[in-house]
Structure formats: C-alpha cells, structure tokens
Design a protein that fits this description.
Blueprint: H1 2-15, H2 30-40, H3 49-52, E1 90-100, H4 104-110, E2 124-126, E3 133-137, H5 151-159, E4 167-173, H6 180-187, E5 199-201, E6 204-207, H7 217-227, E7 233-237, E8 250-255, E9 261-266, E10 269-274, H8 285-293, E11 300-303, H9 312-317, E12 321-325, H10 329-341, E13 348-351, H11 355-371, E14 380-384, E15 412-419, H12 424-436, E16 444-453, E17 456-464, H13 467-470, H14 480-484, H15 487-490, H16 492-505
Parallel strand pairs: 6-7, 11-12, 11-14, 12-13, 14-15
Antiparallel strand pairs: 1-3, 1-4, 2-3, 5-6, 7-8, 9-10, 15-17, 16-17
Length: 506
C-alpha cells in the first residue's frame, strides 16, 4: 500500500506540469527526470537512474521540425588545433518505438524507409523497462511535423500489434560517430574550405593542404588517420614536384614519421617503394591501364621515364618486351625490385640513364634492329611520362635513324604534357610539332588524362613517328631542291614556333 501511495503522489505532481511537448534540448527533460528519479528510485525493484536516463517513457509529440544541426559536432570544437576527441561528445534526441524482440527483425524490414540511417549508430537498443522489449530508433528528419508516423507505417505497426506512440530517446554521439568532413567543418573557421579528398598510398595518406588549412594540419592529419582504417601516417607536400628526380619534400602531419616504405596494388599488381624518394600517383591508375591495353603480347615498350614501373611491369606481365629507364637512382632501385616482386625481371631491361641518353642509346639501337626486319609482326611503343618536360625530348627523334625504313609500321609515341592553354589539345599538338619539325595534323590523337589544378590539364599526345622525321634523308636520294636547301633550314618554321612557345612559358 505504501508503494501505491507513492505512485499516486508521483502522478499527482506530474499532472501539475505544463507538458504539451518536449524540445530537443536537455533542459526540457529536467522536470520529468527529477520527479521520475525522486519517486521511483525509492521503490523496490525499480530501474536505476543509469538505466533510465536515455529516454522518456511518456509518448510525446515531436518538435515541428528536426534540428538541422542534429549531427553537427558541439560548437566548442571551433578553432581547435590539437585534437581533443572527448570535446566532440554531445547528446541528441531521436524518436523511437517500443516493440517486442520476437517481431523485431520483421518490423525492421517493414519500416526501413523511416529507420535511423546514421553510419556508426545502432538502430536498436534494449528497452530498460522490459527485458523482452526493444527500442527502434527512427530518422528524425523523416518524421512528419505532427510527430507521428505516416499512414503506411501506422498500418504496419497495427498489423504487428505495436503501439504507434513515439517516445524520445537521448542518444549520445561521440567523435567516432562523425565523418571527416563534419569534424573539419566544425573545427575550421566557418565558410572555409575543408579537404575533400586525398591520395592513399598503402598505409600513407598524401594531402595537399591549402594555406588556410595549415594551422590545423596536425589535427587534419590525425582525423584522416582515425577515420580511414589501415592508414598509419599522413603527410603533406611542402613544395611542387620539380627537378630531374620527380620527387617532392614532405612533412609528416600525424602517425609514424619514419615509415615511408609502402606497398600498393594497382590492377592486381603489387608495387613497393619509398614514397619520400620516388614519384607515385594513384590517380594515374586508369591511364596506366589505358596504355597497357593498347599493347599485344610480343610488342616492344620503351618506357623513357619509368618510375617504379606502373607501365613497365604490367606490360611485361602481358608478355611484351620492355626497356624501362629512370634517372632517379631510388626509382631505378625500386623498379628492379618490383620487376622481381612480380616475376618479370627476365622480360624487362632496366636502365638508370638520362632520358635523352636512353633514347639515343638503347632505344635507337633496338629500333634500328627491329625496323630493319621486313617480317616483324609486333608493334613498337614509346612512353614518355614526364609531363613537365617530356615534349622537349621529342626533338631526339629527328633523324634518329639513318637509311630507309624497312616497314611502314613505325614506332608510336605516347608523350605526356601539362597545359594551361584555353585549348589544351591545340597547344600540346603545336608544341609537339615544333619539336618534331613537322605537322601532325590528321595523324595524332590528344587525350585528356586528368585535371591537375584549375586551368591546368594533363594531356597525352599519341602519334606514329613520321618517316621523314625518324630517318635521315640520304643525299643520293634527295631532290635537287633538297640539295640546295639544308634540312635544318626546311625545319626552321617549326623551330621558330618552338622558340615562341618557350618564350611564352617563361
């Protein structure tokens, strides 16, 4: 009887509260929580406060609309430069339904359109008042303004004999529940751009931070590592790629500072290298595949700027004959390593030479031998992937060979270049023509590889080397006009165009 009197007293006091609806703030729940804890904690066998403090058992109407900042981290994290994960903890209110556990899975399938779909958040929790009951969390952005489910959902509940009354559940969000973009948007000054992408090289995250992001660089690096399983190190490049070795200076933002040797896979082929000493760009994966797809078994590939082997190794896997060169001693070392790693070291001849010396030496010798054969059935391809300056090497092909071609199937060149021109296709073609000393109109293709930066495109021009460029014209076969006019003079207009382009670049 004593317990019943306490219950009557509790409900009498509860009715005195003006309780038409609950807001999403914690303060609105205080009166009910106080009465609830004061009256029920004294009853034998009742739930503890810890078991009850996450939800209100009274069916209530929801707010007129969901809080737009429901899944936004707490404002106190704004301006944070050293990551404090605990500061991201906040409590939000979500709608929930009380159901019996024996119908839980069937009901979840029927209500999937209105269930809470927040990554990392559970949609079901134990009902602290009923060991056979469960709480199903609903999406607060899909509950109508009047705070009840739609007609179709209510019919589903009726068929399962479930009450349509919606309760409110206080759900705790922590650092683990927020996405990278949400965390960085909450930390950086309002309106400032956050990183939207980064390159993943094995266990290393490679970021290109903008100036306004630098004060937060260590926090950004740690967040990227935290939110991407398998990453243990985040780096930011501190200068542009320049110099003959095509590598750049970098700083470690977070993680293991000395662990730069990494392993990646591209089209089922493994590569290992020291990322701090060689060039690797995962965004060129599709381009590597495109070029290798042009090759057939038995073809020859001459890779002038081979790096650690993203063209050379898959070409050798395709049973092509490969000559691969790189000036960087580290790239040369890892190129050899990757050939052995993928068991193609017997099919790849590896060189550590300047690109021009490579073309004028091993490539010239191999081309002369292959092009003198009238029975040759395989194709010859030359890849020049050094977009900052590869076009400048095209002049090597001018009169590289002597005599006359034994076949019309001459080598195909795939040369990469950057362009900031309004018409990058025309720009790249004209620059290539200037170096070759002949027109490529109608006999070349220019392919957009990727957008490197605003108003900067990476392009690939592919063409078969014209015979009049590759072969030195013999005096005995030249016409009278040719004897009177030296070859160098005939090529002068293109040389002038090259000089003009170089002047523009400066």
């Amino acid at each position: 009887m004593r317990n019943f009197r306490r219950l009557n007293d509790f409900f009498a006091r509860l009715l005195k509260i003006n309780y038409f609806g609950m807001t999403a703030s914690n303060t609105s729940l205080a009166p009910v929580r106080v009465l609830w804890s004061q009256s029920f904690d004294q009853l034998p066998g009742c739930l503890s406060v810890a078991q009850r403090n996450n939800f209100s058992t009274m069916p209530q109407m929801l707010d007129n609309k969901a809080d737009p900042d429901l899944y936004v981290p707490h404002p106190r994290v704004r301006g944070m430069t050293t990551l404090d994960r605990a500061a991201f903890t906040k409590e939000v209110v979500v709608p929930a339904l009380k159901v019996k556990k024996d119908i839980l899975h069937k009901l979840l399938k029927s209500l999937k359109s209105v269930l809470l779909k927040r990554p990392g958040l559970k949609r079901v929790a134990d009902d602290p008042e009923d060991e056979d009951g469960r709480l199903i969390f609903l999406d607060p952005h899909k509950i109508p303004a009047e705070g009840s489910l739609g007609e179709s959902e209510q019919q589903v509940l009726k068929s399962f004999n479930v009450s349509p009354d919606i309760i409110k559940y206080n759900l705790e969000l922590t650092y683990d529940h927020f996405k990278v973009e949400e965390i960085l948007q909450a930390v950086l000054p309002e309106g400032q751009e956050v990183i939207t992408a980064f390159s993943r090289i094995g266990h290393i995250a490679h970021l290109n931070l903008r100036e306004h992001q630098l004060p937060y660089k260590h926090l950004i690096g740690q967040v990227v590592i935290d939110k991407n399983p398998g990453l243990t190190c985040a780096v930011n490049k501190t200068n542009i790629i320049e110099g003959a070795y095509r590598n750049f200076q970098m700083e470690v933002l977070a993680g293991e500072e000395g662990d730069m040797i990494t392993k990646v896979k591209e089209h089922y082929i493994s590569y290992e290298f020291d990322f701090s000493k060689v060039y690797w760009n995962p965004r060129l994966c599709t381009e590597h595949s495109r070029i290798v797809g042009l090759l057939k078994p038995g073809d020859f590939l001459f890779d002038v700027f081979a790096g650690v082997g993203p063209f050379a190794v898959p070409a050798a896997k395709k049973n092509c004959v490969v000559f691969a060169n790189d000036l960087n001693p580290e790239s040369y070392k890892w190129l050899q390593h990757n050939c052995k790693l993928n068991r193609v070291d017997k099919k790849v001849k590896v060189f550590n030479m300047d690109g021009r010396d490579f073309l004028e030496g091993p490539v010239k010798e191999a081309l002369a031998q292959q092009l003198s054969s009238k029975d040759r059935k395989h194709s010859l391809h030359i890849v020049m992937n050094l977009p900052a300056m590869a076009i400048e090497f095209l002049d090597v092909f001018r009169h590289l060979l002597s005599g006359e071609p034994g076949t019309t199937d001459l080598p195909t060149v795939h040369c990469y270049s950057f362009s900031k021109h309004d018409n990058p296709v025309q720009d790249v073609q004209e620059r290539a023509e200037a170096c070759l000393g002949t027109s490529l109109e109608g006999c070349c293709s220019v392919f957009l590889v990727r957008n490197v930066a605003p108003n900067k495109e990476m392009m690939c021009i592919s063409f078969r080397i014209p015979a009049e460029v590759l072969y030195q014209v013999q005096p005995s076969t030249a016409g009278a006009d040719n004897l009177q006019e030296p070859a160098s003079k005939r090529l002068r207009p293109y040389e002038e165009l090259l000089e003009e382009k170089m002047t523009e670049a400066v």
